[in-house]
Amino acid sequence: MAIDTLGLLEECLQLVRDLGYEIREEPLGELSGGGCVVGGRRVFLLNLEHGPADRLDHLLRLLAATPEAAAFPKSRLLATRLARLASE
Fold first, then answer.
1. Of 3, 26, 37, 66, which residue is most buried, by most CB within 10 angstroms?
2. Cα separation, 31 vs 33, whole angstroms
């Protein structure tokens, strides 16, 4: 599972960048992170204190909620995870 998680994490990071977000991975304490706008630029904050699975979950939620993400190519595994989130 760790290989799938790390591979999906990397794929999601690239897809979020392709959608125009700057990714910032920083220690955020108890904050989970998320998307915001800083100086007119879209930024997605990831908490480095969280494990890869938690960071992946945050990215998956962003991608599932972003209709533009559907236009980008993605692995079958990522497409399956996003479809599962959309059906919840």
1. 66
2. 6
Q: Are strands 22-26 and 41-47 parallel, antiparallel or unpaired?
A: parallel
Strand, helix or coil for residue 7? helix
Q: What is the pTM of this model?
A: 0.89
Tens of pLDDT, residue by residue over 2-35, are: 568 889 999 999 999 999 999 999 999 988 899 9
* Phi, psi for 81 (deg, rounded to 5): -65, -40
- Those residues with Cβ within 8 angstroms of residue 32's Cβ, 6 or more apart along the chain or in another chain: 47, 50, 54, 58
Q: Which residues touch 72 (CB under 8 Å, ≥6 apart)?
A: 15, 18, 19
